[in-house]
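User: Structure tokens for this complex, please. No commentary.
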Amino acid sequence: MLQQLIADTATGLQQIAEHELPLLQQPADWQSKYRLLMQLGKQLPALPEKMRQTEYLVRGCESRAWLLHYQEPVSGKHYFVLDSEARIVKGLLAIMLCFVNGKTGAELAELDLSRHFDALNLRPYLSQSRGNGLTMMLQRIQSTIKA
Amino acid sequence: MSSFDALAFRQFFPFFNNNPDWVYLDTAATSQKPQQVIDAELAFYQRQNSNVHRGAHQLSQHATAAFEAARDKVQQFLNAASRSEIIFTSGTTAAFNQLAFGLMDTVLKPGDRILISALEHHANIVPWQLHCQSHGVQLDVIPLDPQLMPDLDVYQQLLALKPKIVSLTQVSNALGHILPIGSMLQAAKAAGAITIVDGAQGVSWQVPDVQLWPVDFYCFSGHKLYGPTGIGVLYGKQRYLEQLKPLLGGGEMISDVSFQRSSFAALPARLEAGTPNIAGAIGLAAAIDFIRQFDARQINQYKGELLQQFAAGLSQIPGLRPLTRVEQSAGIVSLQLAGEHPNDLAMLLNEQKIAVRAGSHCAMPLFAALQLPGAVRFAFAPYNLPAEVDVTLQALAAATEILR
Ligand SMILES: Cc1ncc(COP(=O)(O)O)c(C=O)c1O
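Assistant:
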């Protein structure tokens, strides 16, 4: 089950990186930006209800999200599956995952996520004050790979 | 149409001049502050600042007089029988924590029951829970009826179990519904209970006359009544306040301290340990002066008109499902967009500079009972304008369009 979700997530992220991320960099009205964010979230598989367990739960301020993790033993690369109740948040989390998934611990330690979000004109969503759960998810990812 | 002049009322609030692009519909979380409240706090720090009740100097005496005058103001506001029945706290949450702590052992014994409603804010749930289990006290909850009000038949049955305490919110912060607090308190009294009212949302709807209402304790926060943050009031009838064990110990609340024991000062000092929020109390007094210039009936009628306008507009937008019954609301409309998480709607409103709150509004058990992940809450105040209702409806239409 987890392996399938990981494979589907990887495929989805590749789609997003190829098709949607370049679109996000182009100027657009706010409506289009949000439509794109929601569309992008749909590329990631939905976490089946029975896997939405407390141990995977990441509490944002206003919506719930879940994170599952797998480290490939040979390469040491980290793989994730995530889902959120809220569609826009799921889109934003998917973008975050584009820069995180399949990386080693050393690569993740070097990662400058705010630079990537700046480039996509999404920087405000990364700031703590938005309370949309992105910061919480990032912290969970960091603590997960250290564990 | 009400004769209330909202535009003139709005002029008192500098916030709106500084944020002309925003529609502020989050007054249930905190209200904006009129200039005279801001001035009162500022003037205290600029001209009078000294600690209260302790300095030998005249400056401290002036500060003490101003602080105690604020207490008198609150006493008049609630029509309390005595000034020593007014305890300053940091807010409603602090008041409930003092109540829950202070009533355990002294009033509540193992096997006793406390009764609350399903519409309570966490502030009227969690402080009880902190102590209930270790003290063997049972917390009962009045369920909702189909109108999303407390089920009064079940209420009667639960009263038959003789709860020692009945603690109810005057107005629901999540839905805006106004509880039939008068008759509920009367029934609680008839059953022999001590009565507590959470007035955090309700005080701006109807100020209680605490000598007429069968209420033993009443709590509210200054910041939801045009006052500063960090100041609130715990009103209690003298004989009940005297039974409260102080939650906080320290300076000001004692009459005599040795390393063996301390004896406590008289009310209200006994329940006000440490340096109080002096400027906050003075700001709250200014807020009370401010709001008393206006006719509460006219204000409520005006808010009702805004709600009607909003509700009529909502019915034109497909998929929106109000949880609030507008005719029983004090100024809030909470709603859902069918099949959508409230957070998505709130993010799209935020993008359009409509300030609302989404989620479970510190009332998680309520949303668990409704089997909903939360709602988006639109909280109207007398400084909101009909034009803002229109802008909000347009923003909602645009947001639902995107989510469709
Ligand atoms: C009904 C109700 N009770 C209690 C509180 C808590 O008030 P405060 O945060 O000011 O202590 C609130 C505020 O959100 C409320 O709406």
